[in-house]
Amino acid sequence: MNPEALLAQPLAPYAAHSGLSRGRLFEETPPSARSEFQRDRDRIIHCTAFRRLEYKTQVFVNHEGDLFRTRLTHSIEVAQIARSIARNLQLNEDLVEAISLAHDLGHTPFGHAGQDALNDCMEAHGGFEHNLQSLRVVDKLEQRYGAFDGLNLMFETREGILKHCSLANARKLGDIGERFIQRKQPSLEAQVANLADEIAYNNHDVDDGLRSGLLTLEQMNQIDFYATHSREVERLYPGLGGRRAINETVRRMINALITDLIQTSQQRILDARLQSVDEVRNAPPLIAFSDGMAQQAALLKRFLRENLYRHYLVNRMTAKARRIVAELYACFSAEPTLLPPDYQLGQPGTAGASPQARAIADYIAGMTDRYAIREHRRLFLVDEGHL
Ligand code: MG
């Protein structure tokens, strides 16, 4: 189909239609000049947690280099990939965009290292999980509106943000947790955003890994998926080399993944003879790569885990990050009076209680990398400059 014609396509019957939505927790007047999901997207872009993404680690800590991905640029890349897929499948682009932009709002500073450390600290108080925290940010922590806490987003946006959830947590969440208990699927838009996330980070981590020098081209060429596209680039542009050859290779990898995902998912949707979102929820996951492509993607993921995420220089930053988060938590939990007033729940003697622990986790999770580093310095360094 002519790509321009895609713009004029109506939503498929199995797409999320805002008119058939389960709506918002607090009823509001419908927006006059945009769709309900556009309104969600706009609220997300304007919220504080979204701006903080600029200074939160994806793999490399923000100050390690100006050209690496941050959680903000990652989220924008996810939204771009997800929208392309959604348009081709006649799904709701506004919804996939909203989910994609919000999916990482609950991340701690220092990426997964920060989350693991905070989860350990919170063991006696229900743990810490970034997906659940993203939902908590949009449901409770953002304070911008007169009538409600949070952003009061549509059910389908919140459902897409909560990608994973333990059964114990699901039971506490009411309708948004139901699907984990009943083993149902979320909307196709949520499924698209989930896989767009994977496409984005696998490829930009290759790009950032090579840029940083932690990965080499010799290593990358041992991965079939990379080598195939790299050979194609060499055939088209003999001797190109350098950043351009890397970019030409990575863009082909992204394109191959997106194209495969669209074709495979389209076929699965056709085979399932879907007529509505309800049928989507009861069907098996329908947004998927072909078996061959899923295998390639898994190999790439494993390669990145072994060679980039566990590179000794990354490990050094990870170890520091865990220490900073654990020490901040221990310090606030022993002396909640050191917290900013908004996070102090109360009377002497509440130290160690779960609500106070959760408020400490909220405070730490909201920090950017550099804020956490500075806060750690302010609390632990004793010299004239840091009192
Ligand atoms: Mg992500």
UniProtKB/TrEMBL annotation:
It comes from the Bacteria. SMART domains: HDc. InterPro entries: dGTPase, dGTPase-like, dNTPase_2, HD/PDEase_dom, HD_domain, PHydrolase_assoc_dom. This is Deoxyguanosinetriphosphate triphosphohydrolase-like protein. Keywords: Hydrolase. PANTHER family: DEOXYGUANOSINETRIPHOSPHATE TRIPHOSPHOHYDROLASE-LIKE PROTEIN (PTHR11373:SF43), DEOXYNUCLEOSIDE TRIPHOSPHATE TRIPHOSPHOHYDROLASE (PTHR11373). Residues 71-202 form the HD domain. The keyword Hydrolase applies.
